[in-house]
Design a protein that fits this description.
With 299 residues, the chain is α/β, with parallel strands linked by helices. It is built from 10 helices and 6 strands. It folds into 2 domains: 165 residues, Protein tyrosine phosphatase superfamily (Protein-Tyrosine Phosphatase, Chain A, Alpha-Beta Complex); 107 residues, Cytochrome c/b562 (Four Helix Bundle (Hemerythrin (Met), subunit A), Up-down Bundle). The N terminus is likely disordered.
């Protein structure tokens, strides 16, 4: 256990992780799976990246790793009270799939210079935005060049379709040591569409688990029900579109969102009618619709 980890907060229910944030060599895969964590990478000494911590067990895994600061680059609001109970400080710095802005790059430099370590940086799944942010943080900390930092994206499997993330890691240069850097906050103001789509993303993950379980409640997740998950996806898409200002996106975006909502409704109806074949067909169409929308408007 790293110095500063809190054994008192470890319930003992989960096995200890294979290494700590302080001791493991970098960069490499620390663990594909830990309790409540996925795709955990040691990207440099004292800097890890991975998925969003799931529930209390994910936060407990971070505490066992000795993590002191958790940086979320996702749009979802961090669960601060739960994190604080595990002795974890949060920094909330949402970024998009289209790249890392100059302001975000400067904020990550402040994380590298001032945040207590070890540091864990996450997005949702731990493959794209989080890995890119971790790579920038490593450059800002002087641990590697921007070109070497691209190896982090390769290791994590960051999609090449997210060209902006690759571009901004490669071109990143740390601000001057005397530069005025942005304030770090635990919970950033997030626009309604970003927050809504972050929740849709999570409900969609649950729906995929239900599909993979034969349209039944997935193992180990008794609170997840197929029809209910489809309902939450449908409602989430509806609210995301409803709360988006009229001048924010064009008609093409609204048409694609409406089409996705209709497909989610088809999946929900099929599940309520106990028609798994129709549910699977609708789910396949919904996944295709989401990917097309992401390519056009998100990536």
């Amino acid at each position: 256990m790293a110095v500063g980890a809190s054994p008192a907060r470890d319930s003992g229910a989960a096995p200890p992780p294979p290494a700590t944030a302080e001791s493991a060599p970098a960069p490499h895969v620390l663990a594909r799976e830990l309790p409540g964590l996925h795709n955990v990478y040691q990207v440099a000494e004292g800097i890890l990246s991975g998925s969003e911590p799931e529930g209390d067990e994910g936060l407990a895994s971070l505490a066992r790793l000795g993590i002191k600061t958790v940086v979320s680059v996702d749009g979802a609001i961090p669960r601060l009270d739960a994190a604080h109970q595990h002795g974890l400080r949060y920094v909330h710095l949402p970024i998009g799939y289209d790249g890392i802005s100059e302001q975000a790059g400067r904020a990550l430099a402040r994380v590298a210079r001032e945040a207590p370590g070890p540091i864990y940086i996450h997005c949702h799944h731990g493959k794209h935005r989080g890995s890119a942010a971790a790579a920038v943080t490593c450059v800002a900390a002087g641990k590697m060049s921007s070109r070497d930092a691209l190896k982090i994206l390769e290791m994590a499997g960051t999609g090449t379709e997210y060209a902006g993330l690759w571009r901004d890691v490669e071109k990143y240069s740390a601000p001057a040591t005397d530069a005025v850097l942005p304030e770090l906050v635990e919970s950033a103001e997030v626009d309604l569409l970003t927050a809504a789509m972050a929740q849709v993303d999570r409900r969609f993950d649950e729906l995929k688990l239900c599909r993979d379980a034969g349209w039944r409640t997935p193992p180990g997740q008794p609170d997840v029900a197929p029809a209910q998950s489809a309902l939450l996806v449908r409602e989430g898409l509806h609210e995301a579109l409803r709360t988006t200002p009229g001048d924010r996106y064009d008609d093409a975006f609204r048409e694609m969102m409406s089409a996705a909502e209709a497909l989610a409704a088809q999946v929900e109806t099929a599940l309520r009618e106990s028609n798994p074949k129709a549910a699977s067909a609708g789910m396949k169409a919904l996944e295709t619709s989401c990917k097309q929308c992401h390519v056009k408007f998100r990536n």
